[in-house]
Amino acid sequence: MKRVQSASAVLVALFGFAAGASAQDDSGRSVSNGGRADSHIATMPVVQTARILSNISLDGVLDDAAWLAAPAATNFIQTEPREGQPATERTEVRIVYDDDALYVGARMHDSNGSVRKRLGRRDSFLWDSDWLYVSLDSYHDHINAYQFSVNPAGVKRDAITTGEGGFRDDASWDAVWDVAVSVDPQGWTVEMRIPFSQLRFSPTDVQTWGIQLGRRIIGKEENVVLSYTPKSMRGGPARYGHLVGLQGIRPGKRAEILPYVATRAEYLNVDAANPFRSGNDYFASTGLDVKYRVTSSMTLDATVNPDFGQVEVDPAVINLSAFETSFDEKRPFFVEGSDIFRFGEMRMFYSRRVGRAPQGGIPGDAAFSDRPDASTILGAAKLTGQTEGGWRIGALTALTSRESAPFRTTAGLDDEVVVEPMTGYVVTRLEKTFRSGQSSIGGIFTGLRREQGDSALDAFLRSSAYSGGLDFSHEFLDRTWQVNGYLAASHVAGSAPALIRTQRSSARYYQRPDADYLAVDSAATSLGGYAGRFVVRKIAGLHWRGEANVSATSPGFEINDLGFQTGVDRVGSDLNVTYVENRPGSVFRNYRINLRNSRDWNYGWDVIGGRSNLSLHGQLTNFWGGSLSFTRRWESYDDRLTRGGPIALEPAGWQADFNLNSDGRKKVSGRFNGEYGQSDRGGWNRRLSLNMSLRPAENWTISAGPSLRQSYTPAQYVFSASDAAALETFGRRYVFAPLRQTTVSMETRLNVNFTPTLSLDVFTQPFIASGDFGEGRQLRAPRTYEFDPYAGSIGDRDFVTRSLRGNAVLRWEWQPGSTLFLVWQQRRAGALSCPVGATDCHGGRFDLSRDARALFSVPPENIFQVKMTYWLNM
């Protein structure tokens, strides 16, 4: 433990040095208090717009007289490669408006005649193409902005952006807007029409918006912007220029209606005796999504019989941990606008809880059942926007139906069991900003109530769950430093059996026999807890950045009914220092060095984690890049290893990670990743992966990503068994076994874009995983990592799992806002089955040749879907 303390002391000293260091401008001169070194920042550029009376014909040619109503913005500055220098190519952008829409006309000159274009589906970011960006902070609150982008092939990308490099961009937002482009030997031209109905803004008569204009010139590796901010300073909407001249604008048509029709055909491998499925089953549905603009700044989204079918399959995984796997949300209603419901670094709202797979069980004597794959969402509504007082608001509510599963027993009797109660959900989020977006305070509330009355489900599921929290952020010293944090609380209630299950869950393990601060209360019908986090970080500066944070999550904190968490009973600290160099040199275009140390305790003040990490990241002048990371894990304790038993020792170990990526602008590019780790008690893990991308033509992209992961775990938890003779381990034997695992997969994608509105995406993932268990062993004593042979049998737990998943999606936006999907999904899944008495089956041994052949011998299951939406603006 002294090594951890020593490492912490070194980091504290380094962070103190970084904190004391003065900010510097791009020439290296000191600037006290993070002051502005570039006078351009003090006088943001102004873009003048004007109302037009004549029409503009969107054809990609700036020959309409209306474009002369406003002056052109031309003074663009490089951010790459020569930061702060004038752009080497002239760019002219004019903005005008009428009663219904904002118009952007841009001319991008190219003296070399090297305009690069590439076709891709909407919202894709194509690194090997030129781009034009238009970002509008229509509330002028310096927080978020609407970004509209287009490339010379006419590919559109729209997003809600913070302007900080895209790491929080919400590209799920899809506005209905028009664009036309043209390319000639001297450059390319863009005409955009952005309806006011697609934006949110204040109701005042005279308005000023924030605006940023940007251009990517791939032939010269040049990025230019109108409102320039040095990389050493905090950018984003607070540094945007000003769009002036807007007067008397209105949101236009208030309602968007999006009806849909969908059909699905399923051809599955079904037992002939199954009374619920024939193997050739057909389904149809219809529904309606409505978007209504309550005011120019508030929007209500509602849905009736929503179609939340996914057109992409979740990746295959093998999970031997005590925690569930988290998957990305892909359902449009929940994806769009999800950014407003974010609460710090905690997932208080995990939208895949709504419409989740039913949680109730099927009776053990059921031979066949018709259990639904997901809970039916009867309706959902969402209100988002901003009030006149500057409060951002998000409110969502949904209702899912009571789900039953008919089944037939082995005796031939038919019955039905309830597998999910009717459930109501509500989430609200408020946030208020001050000081031009530099300070904010907000709150969140989530609530869930389940219908009661089914004794089996009442004993299994909680009847209600509520959580709430407050968060804040404050930037100071010219947005160079930031403090932020949150405080949250939760309360769940239900029957005594349901609360016993909650207390004994993998998140908290109240039953741990050596935890004197925890105990299962068998009479409890509610449980409450709290969580908090406080962070101080230096977020800008020429070279030095850093962060220090502390956090705590009490044992009783529970948000998994509507949120996502894997662990509680934790107190943590983290300290890191980063040295950044963004100015290109003779070898590196940029690089950064990070030194980090973290330590965690449980509420019994056992040290349950300590790590020190050194990482290097850089990009060479030829646009190749990579990173190298080394982590030392210090010896500590593990209060989860025995799954509710006594605490055990966690051996020290180390981990090294390496990745190398080539120039992503080339027709052939790739990324190689490797890692190797080892514990001081014999465990190890290694992984190799490669992702290659081939672009043989302007509209084709092919990528393949093979991956190999192998590991050896000396002690994989198997089970525990009561034994009064096991005095050292509190009357139970905690049984483990060594485990060798091998996982091979390859994600392959083919993207063909026939036009900017017609695309074909094909995805496949063959997946093979094996697990070879050794002889059983039992934990010798608490707070050790020592094991004795187990006299009993652990059974045959070896496994080989094989799956092949894939889908093909043809997407056609046949008119703005209206889309046709043709979807084909195929899946094959199976496992190695050893005959009774076989001695040479090797049921857990990895054999790539055997398993690859067997993968394609499994009969496939096919699902075909057709869905069409029709957008109406009323």
Unreliable segments (pLDDT under 50, ≥5 consecutive)?
A: 1-42, 316-323
**Contiguous helical run count:** 6
Q: Rg from C-alpha positions? A: 29 Å
What would you call the structural class? Answer: mainly beta
Mean pLDDT: 87
Which sheet architecture does the biggest sheet show? 24 strands, antiparallel, barrel
Query: What is the CA-CA span between the terminal residues?
Result: 67 Å
What proportion of the residues is helical, as a percent range? Answer: under 10%
Total count of strands: 47
CA-based shape = globular
The percent range for strand residues is: over 45%
What order do the helices and strands come in, and which of them pair?
Layout: H1 2-20, E1 23-24, E2 30-31, H2 39-42, E3 46-48, E4 50-51, E5 77-80, E6 91-97, E7 101-109, E8 131-137, E9 145-150, E10 156-161, E11 178-184, E12 187-195, E13 206-217, E14 222-225, E15 241-247, E16 255-267, E17 280-295, E18 298-304, H3 332-335, E19 366-369, E20 377-386, E21 391-400, E22 403-409, E23 414-420, E24 423-434, E25 439-450, H4 455-458, E26 464-476, E27 481-493, H5 496-503, E28 526-538, E29 544-553, E30 570-581, E31 588-601, E32 607-620, E33 625-633, E34 636-638, E35 648-650, E36 653-661, E37 668-679, E38 684-694, E39 700-722, E40 732-755, E41 758-773, E42 777-779, E43 787-789, E44 799-815, E45 818-831, H6 848-855, E46 861-869, E47 872-873
Parallel strand pairs: 3-15, 4-6
Antiparallel strand pairs: 1-2, 5-14, 6-7, 7-12, 8-9, 8-13, 9-10, 11-12, 13-14, 13-15, 16-17, 16-46, 16-47, 17-18, 18-20, 19-22, 20-21, 21-24, 22-23, 24-25, 25-26, 26-27, 27-28, 28-29, 29-30, 30-31, 31-32, 32-33, 33-36, 34-35, 36-37, 37-38, 38-39, 39-40, 40-41, 40-42, 41-44, 42-43, 44-45, 45-46
